[in-house]
């Protein structure tokens, strides 16, 4: 037996060689014939019944769901032949407990040389247990499910479909989950070979369980194991697919997708969802809720959707409420839509749009493009050269590491370039722009903080702009701005008609006051304020317009000014 397979695969097989292609290496495709028995073929079998046409249709549907994920070709053949054969019979009794609706005789114990696997579904309603007590139960209903389209993975799942998927799993070589699978990992959240998971149960207003939602597909560990046996079917949904579900749908499933540019879309959901695009991780979509207390008749749909190992879903769209979206390692397009969303792009060059609401948006690794949308948002670029747009609202934006471009947009924004050579644009409103470490550039109504060679433009608004360490270029724009060069040889831009700027920490012989739009030093009067002469007034002599109040230097000379075009 191989020792390097994942634990969840070895926990779901009878044995590595107990598969139909055991004479070939694991992962080799296989063709299996199946049939529907018309006669028992054994006088010891009681209560024999062939499957009717609807039940046969359900079996074909379930076989197709297994072949969608693995390289198994199922070929229907005449009654009583083939590797897998289906029918009903009475339960043999104590060996098959009363709650079993089906069982398999002769799974592929010996691989390619195995006898046919007989998949039986119970036909009797009662039996006498070893204590002489008559046990009764309902006959399992094998009714064909209905579904809208291959891209709408929301069939009306019955217990019969779940039963058939479980028993066919046995016939293909899967066992009930064994150690080390325990807890949730041993339930149908992870494998159709397991038991019921609590999040698959719906409760009434009294907190009583009233029905169970069964898995509509082979689950995360089933897919991994069956693909280890027979190889992955990469032709399944290999185009550009959109996965969506009806509003308030009850479902449990795993997405297997063979390629293309794909999207999980919860645009129509009226409750907040969790969408996690990482392979092997779970999402919570539909009637997810933290509150199951009466009188709320809701189901806890936490972790009801998995992404199979080896699957890449590129994009996600949130719904009408507050969603949490997690990207994967490729370039994702992630949209929060309405609500106060939390979006984490993860590795990759992502495009993130928060939409309406107070959103928390994280680019993380990669060069990301992030839009806050309408609302007061928190945006973090993370590691990479990012473009970050606050848009309307009072936003807090942090570029993170490397060279970022930051636009505050309308509102009172706080913009931090972070380490790297950044460009920071405050936009309209009274903003704070912070340069941090690196050679940064900033613009539009804003304030910028320490550690960088920054270029910052305040635009409209009364802004606070702090250059930090490095040689900064600071232009307050329209409004009465407070400008701090801090360390380094800084340059402050003065223009007529832009308001009165306060240059707090001018250093003579190191910093410069740049005269723009045709201003020259000869046009100015520079007067000290008060007896101490700590601050200077810079005016245009002809009009008396006050351009700036300059602090930090006792005397200003012509050498402290430079005319720029």
Structure description:
The protein is rod-shaped. It is mostly beta strands and 565 residues long. It is built from four helices and 41 strands. The strands form six sheets. A 14-stranded parallel sheet has the order 10-12-16-18-20-22-24-26-28-31-33-35-37-41, with no helix packed on it. The longest helix is centred in the first third of the chain and has 17 residues.
Record the SSE blueprint.
Elements: H1 7-10, E1 30-36, H2 53-69, E2 72-76, E3 84-89, E4 102-105, E5 117-122, E6 126-128, E7 134-136, H3 159-172, E8 201-203, E9 209-212, H4 220-230, E10 242-243, E11 253-255, E12 263-265, E13 274-276, E14 282-283, E15 305-307, E16 315-317, E17 324-326, E18 333-335, E19 342-344, E20 351-353, E21 360-362, E22 369-371, E23 378-380, E24 387-389, E25 396-398, E26 405-407, E27 414-416, E28 423-425, E29 432-434, E30 441-443, E31 455-457, E32 464-466, E33 473-475, E34 482-484, E35 491-494, E36 501-503, E37 512-515, E38 524-529, E39 535-540, E40 546-551, E41 561-563
Parallel strand pairs: 1-2, 1-3, 3-5, 10-12, 11-15, 12-16, 13-17, 16-18, 17-19, 18-20, 19-21, 20-22, 21-23, 22-24, 23-25, 24-26, 25-27, 26-28, 27-29, 28-31, 29-32, 31-33, 32-34, 33-35, 34-36, 35-37, 36-40, 37-41
Antiparallel strand pairs: 4-5, 6-7, 8-9, 14-15, 38-39, 39-40
Helix pairs in contact: 2-3
